[in-house]
Batch of 4 targets.
Target 1
Amino acid sequence: MKAQEAEVEAEKVLKMKCVEREEQRLRADVIEPAKAEKQAAFARAEAEAAPILERGKAQVEVLRRLYVEVQTGGEAAFAVFMAEKLPELRSPSVPWRAWTSTAWS
């Protein structure tokens, strides 16, 4: 009886060691490489986003300054601003030729 209990206990310890070894193998083969890839992907995403973010910040600053200039300049400044933007506002976003050549055929 004691021999069987000792054998069962030894078998249990052996199985636990096998489980620990398998956990270590999985950690080394799967988990750690996945963590490294996740960190690398995050770094790549940040690197790709940086110029976009900075361009956005620069555009905000330009618009903020333009707003201040138009506000401080009053109606005359607004009129000049609109005169500069008028060609953009009048031009269609789709050229007329695109509408006439294919849309009505």
Target 2
Amino acid sequence: MHKEDTMKGRTLTVIAPALLFLSACSTTPVASDRLQVEVVAGSGRAAAMDEWEEVVVSPLFSKLPQEDQVSALRFAASAADERGEHAEAHAYRVMLTDYPSAVPMDVLLRAEGAMRVEDWNDAAAALTALARRWPGEVSLEPRPAFIAHVAFRVGRDKELRPAYLSLVEALFEADFKMVYDTPPDGLWEDLVLDALQRRDLPRALDVAGRIQSVGTLLRMKVDRRFDAVVGANPDQFDLAGAARRASADGQRVMANHPRELYAFVQHAYALFDEGRHQEVLAQCDAILAKIERAPDHAPPYDDLDRSLNWVYNHKAAALRALGRWHEALAVMEQARRLDEQRGPNVSQTLNLAVHYNDAGQPARALDVLQGFECSDAVSPYGCMQLHAARHRAYREMGRQADAAAAFDYLRSHRDEAEGLWAGAVLDVGDMDAAAALLIEQLQDPLERGAALARVQDYRPLPMTPSMRASHERWQQLLARPDVAAAIDAVGRRSEQPIYRTAD
């Protein structure tokens, strides 16, 4: 009536299916201690796990005590996942989270399962329930990154807008924070817009008061939809002041987390906004020297596998901003040979290819990307970066057939990265198509903020001849009367007191 074994020194307590049936059918209650058994690891455990599903689908399931139903559903879901039947596992977890005794992890696993089967509406619903029922759980690491990923994906789908806004509203009420207590400003931006569209200015101002990041404040400042909020608190939307505040906040975070390189990685973005490139370079050199001096058994930071590649990336970005192109390329060559989160380095490989194109070395860009293809390790955006880099290199080398194939990929996947698609259209010199595309983005409520941010004039940085040629084509596009009118209809374009340093 039970299965018993060890699990590498640990044991897993579950309720044996046969005894569940005995308990459910017997007129004499079975003592609870008779239902506690040990389950084996390996094939024995797998067989026992499969039996749980027989319990769940049995007509007798509803006769079990609720706590036993919950246990059965948990194990049935795990068994289905182990067999790769993720839709079935998700269905069990949807049932499970309806029980009052469900716990936060049940809801998170439901959301994760919904994402796996691409049921984004249910992923949002699960996380909304989590935020409302257990508000203190949503900001516990490492949950914020997962929650933000789901919210971002749901928010891009116009059909799921109600589910997205319900999720963001629940997160706001739960005082959701990202790492280092950073507010998820992009989410709050959408909540402000929703309040304005409902003509609820007090609510819009309340939500906007939590927004801090320079990028979000910029998008709001140049977008006419937010004029009532910007006009009510102009000091908050002083971008130079916001950049200074962000730098000061980043310095405090670094002081409070001295063994986390990620704190510096985030702080450097604020320094870039202020144009403090020499300072970023000096800090990168100091960090790398500190790591070099430390013995292998006692590294000075706890997250080298997560963040060291971005220190090199920031060093190269600072060098480019100082016009030191060859040094920057050498640093990026070092960076791409480092692991990224204990796996292949996708980010720096793609960035290096872009920088070789900028440097007028398309053959080297293609060499870097040799054998690099889209896979599970590469995000959809990363695949767009890959094909954009190849498209540009192929064009420069006169490989028209290869360039056309890359261009076709960018066209068919444009929803993954509208900015990269727009850049490719502009690169081929089709000004009419580029203008139509930019106007389309400006008129799309979901794309407007990013489009308006792209058309601003930022503090100047050094450019290679290839970068300058691209910049001149961009300026020609923005000077077209139809484009200028489209910008003015929904926002404004002006000189901004910050820098935009490319990664």
Target 3
Amino acid sequence: MTKRWVNMPVNIDSTIISIVIGVVMLLGGFATIRSESSSQFDHNFALLLLIAGVASLGFGLGLIDSSQLHNLIP
């Protein structure tokens, strides 16, 4: 007998989405830095990806409180 996965409820919230986006950004950044055929622009963009990936993981894991970000803007 086969199981039907169609009727299973999937609870995907913003936490899971931000964790997945952070992991994909980190993988892309590390892959670009490790690539032998990447230019200096690619390396600089990969560093931005790494920073954004760490920030996204911080939001997803609850290490960064997004409710206090409005205090950073003068």
Target 4
Amino acid sequence: MRHLLAALALCPLAALAAPSDSPWTPDRAFVQYGEQTDTRAVTLGLNWDWSWSRPLGSGLLSGYHDLAIGRWRAEVDEGHKNFTQLGYTPVLRWWSSGQPGGFFVEGGIGVNVVSPRFHTVEKRVGSNFTFGDHLGAGWRSSGGTEVSLRFQHFSNGGLADPNPAVDFWQVRLSIPLQTP
């Protein structure tokens, strides 16, 4: 499992090394901080914007691919323990201005691996595999920097017992990697 996580963690580095006209070149990088009752998480990641978009109401619907690697620090019986989270999430985003900029709301459902198997003093998750879904709202400045507040829920979808929710409130800062 450790070798698989290490290999997957290197994928973003390969993407950053891709030529600028390659579809593997990410559009954005982010850092995110989240908390739940007994766990804190710091996450780094990359986003690839979709070329697809459609008008929706007074706004614009678009999306992006999100690849993330996080470090969770949880309170456990022995004190504290660290967990590594690796995830992929396709995300739908609605821009209120009708173009990519200003206020947005978003939601996504993705897949994650958390290793070792996540537990705290009060919770034990039945598998390393989890689904992660989130809702968020934020703002993109004219320079492309984004700040957002998100609520993210992790669970294994009932595929294994036990299946307690792991819910984080998160703040994300995202910066563009490419110039328009």
